[in-house]
Amino acid sequence: MDMKRRIALASALLAVGLGAGHFVQSRAKPAQQAALAPEVKPQSVVPLAATIEPALPEPVKPALPAAPALEPAAKPETALAPVADACPVELELMQQDNAMVGITLLAPCRPGQRLVIKHGGLAITAQTSTTGSLFLDIPAMETQARIDISFPDGEKIASTIPMPEVAQMQRFAVQWLDRDAFQLHAFENGADYGKPGHVSAAAPQRPAPGEIAQGGFLTLLGDATTDLPMLAEVYTFPKDGTPEVLIESAVTADTCGRELLGETIGSVGGKVSVNELTLVMPECDAAGDILVLKNLVPEMKLAAR
């Protein structure tokens, strides 16, 4: 037994000497090497090597989060396209009785926005509803009626519809901006103020839906509640009619002492002519007076009443 233990001890010392190297041989005495030999086991060396090896790949780890970080940065750009597609602006035109163009505008992402609508020399303001829609009838001024609609940010949409009925009609309009107010009056069959045949904003004689107009009628256009409202009044009468048409402007605190600017628009057989309208108003001590522009077709003259 002693001989076997000595052989085992000698083998252990030889393993320690080979594992520890020259440093251990020069620093420890033979007696000390024999005392330490039983505590040094081959198993105690192997785990040290095992704990070092997994740590080697750690410098590669910072590269792992860098790759996925690039993907989220690109996602917001691609997400914008579905949002834009979900909010299209649609414009539909329909032929209505008495040569009126029915306008249906659907702009779900543009609720409560001011619009400018142009057609045949007319330029009026409107406003979308809380759902971004607009439903409006406008007198056709041309046989090929083009409707242009502009939004506050400059976006535009347009469409055209044939309106052959306009070729058998005459239309006359006056339009103005904000406080430069004008009022259109038409007198049919020699009518007087307030009598049958007097067509005005107070008595527009507009036919009911589905009813064909037997005489002239007035259409009031524009939304006065918008910023810088653009308003108009359009009088429609048969092609062979000869009513007296005039424009009035009252002297008020908003109009006195300054120059009013507007435009008149004539449509005969679907052909449009536009003329500037300038009216110098009296001073404010004339408040309550009314200036009248008579004989507008074909000639304009100024009168007072």
Task: Write down how many β-strands occur, each being a DSSP E stretch of 2 or more residues.
Answer: 17
Radius of gyration: 46 Å
Enumerate the strands of the largest sheet in spatial order, edge to edge or round the barrel.
Answer: 11-12-8-14-15
| Helical stretch tally | 5
Distance between the termini: 147 Å
Question: Mean pLDDT, nearest integer?
Answer: 79
As for the number of domains, it is 2
The fraction of residues assigned to DSSP E strands is 35-45%
Give the overall form: globular
Helix content: 10-25%
Major sheet description:
5 strands, antiparallel
Q: Please write the string of helix (H) and strand (E) elements.
A: HHHHHEEEEEEEEEEEEEEEEE
The low-pLDDT segments are 1-5, 12-38, 40-56, 70-84
Question: Structural class, from secondary structure content?
Answer: alpha+beta
Give your account of this protein's structure:
The structure is a single chain. This protein has 305 residues and is α+β, with helices and mostly antiparallel strands. The protein is built from 5 helices and 17 strands. The protein has helices at residues 2-20, 22-27, 30-36, 42-52, 63-85, and strands at 90-96, 100-106, 114-119, 122-127, 133-139, 144-150, 156-162, 169-177, 183-187, 198-199, 217-221, 230-238, 244-250, 259-268, 271-280, 290-294, 301-304. The N and C termini lie far apart (147 Å).
